[in-house]
Amino acid sequence: MSSRTNTAALINGRWVVKVQKNGVRKAFYSSKPGKKGQQEANAKADAWLDGEIVDAKCRVRDIWKDYLADVEARSSFSNYRQICTIGDSYVLPLLGNKKVCDLTEGDLQSLVNKAYKHGSFNSKQKHKSSLKPGETLSRKTLNNIVATLKNFMKYCRVTAKATTMIPETLRVPAGARLDGKSILQPDHLKTLFSSDMTTWRGKPQKDDMIYAYRLAVLTGLRPGELLGLRWGDVTPNETHLQIRRAINVFGEETQGKNQNAVRSIPLSEYAQEMIRAQRSLAIEECGSVTAQEPVFREITEPTLRDTWKRYCRANAIPSVTLYELRHTFVSIASLLPAGEVKMLVGHSRSMDTFGTYGHHIKTYDQMIADDLSGLFDNLLG
Q1: Above pLDDT 70, what percent of the chain?
Q2: Are 193 and 341 contained in the same domain?
Q3: How high is the pLDDT of residue 226?
Q4: 67 and 17 in one domain?
């Protein structure tokens, strides 16, 4: 084991310490001010000096299999599938044959940069772009790739003992942008709320999911949250929805996307009308409804996407996704105070005010519902 004989020095506003082990010289940095920064840089150097590589010959493709097994055991199936895709599309084609102990942060950054410019890869044509000319990979996808690389390297370092490298400065290229989103404009919103017809095999018929589409626009619910609604989640006076679960694309029932997803939302008059109409439709079809029955018929999210696309084609509505109905709601509700909107759609805050001071004020709910009703009155006439 090597020992550090020097200490970090302040250079150009950063703490820097340079150390050497087995003929390899490395520098470690910290941007924290004062003694804490010096201690952090020294700690990073000591961790590298004390690190022991047990398997210096293991390649990325070999450890990746073990890493996936670890992810599958401790994570949701949807997250596991996402990491599998990142591995097949980026990690294994570009880094699979490299020895883990030889990987540098430059190798990882090069992967991110290539993914940004070229999109996904395959083992036969590593440098053929999967993107259209002028396109780049979205910032969201690149963030997922960076997070996966960092977690994989941590697994290699802590569990597999195949490296001592800590990717400190791995980043998304500055030019990366979020995906562009579309929303329904007022003319198309009026169509959505006036036409309940779709087509099936070329013949017109009533769309039995029409109230799901409309409720998505009126409340900002995610597609999975719509499918997770049970009649017991509707308060007896139909003024609130209790969002307790979501059904993901794999048919799994979850507690939602994040800790803010479980919430109670007040319903505008328009949203209450959709709930009543859906209840009448369900009673007409089944004779009665129970608290445990789904509000909308039991279909998968991919099937719901298909029925929505079919409805859009039948009514000359531009192609927007189900999730973009949520963006439509947020765009309409942008005139409301930010705190109200975040509560409605289940978004987090820099400080969890509602979690810390979580006393329910009923009059606030009525104010929000009235505000939403006024906004949709203006849009829908």
Answers
A1: 85
A2: yes
A3: 94
A4: no
At residue 358, the pLDDT reads 32
Give the CATH number for residue 237.
Answer: 1.10.443.10
Do the domain assignments include residue 142?
yes
Same domain? 142 vs 200: no
Query: What is the model's pLDDT at position 98?
Result: 93
Residues 234, 376, single domain; the answer is yes
Residue-number span of the structural domain to which 30 is assigned: 9-50
When divided into structural domains, the chain yields a total of 3
For residues 143 and 204, state if they share a domain.
Answer: no
| pTM (predicted TM-score) | 0.66
Whether residues 150 and 274 fall in one domain: no
Question: pLDDT class for 354, splitting at 50, 70, 90?
Answer: very low
Give 174-204 pLDDT, tens digit per residue: 888 776 678 888 889 899 999 999 999 889 9
* 64 and 45, same domain (yes or no): no
The three state secondary structure string of the chain is CCCCCCCCEEECCEEEEEEEECCEEEEEEECCCHHHHHHHHHHHHHHHHHCCCCCCCCEHHHHHHHHHHHHHHHCCHHHHHHHHHHHHHHHHHHHCCCEHHHCCHHHHHHHHHHHHHHCCCCCCCCCCCCCCCCCCCCHHHHHHHHHHHHHHHHHHHHCCCCCCCCCCCCCCCCCCCCCCCCCCCHHHHHHHCCCCEEEECCEEEECCCHHHHHHHHHHCCCHHHHHHCEHHHECCCCCEEEECCEECCCCCEECCCCCCCCEEEECCHHHHHHHHHHHHHHHHHHCCCCCCCECCCCCCHHHHHHHHHHHHHHCCCCCCCHHHHHHHHHHHHHHCCHHHHHHHHCCCCCCCHHHHCCCCCHHHHHHHHHHHHHHHHHHHC
